Amino acid sequence: MLGVNVKWDNEQDARKFVEEYGIPYRVGRDADGDIGRRYKVEGTPASFLINKDGTLFGQHQGAMTEGEFKRNIDALLKKK
What we know:
two-stranded antiparallel ribbon, about 35% helix, alpha+beta, two-stranded parallel sheet, 2 domains, about 80 residues
């Protein structure tokens, strides 16, 4: 699991969010916007499921409930 703070978000606010909510995974910064362009991120939150071979398995624009998130992760883990 990896989080990415997009170019247009305030980096200080993102750091505060990570600390305040105890985000348990690493969060990096897309300072030059390259990641956002590659994945065509137009808004946040956006979630991308990447296979272990680096290919895009699925994506979701907008917030997800915990149940939706778990279903997506389970589907990714079951993919062979």
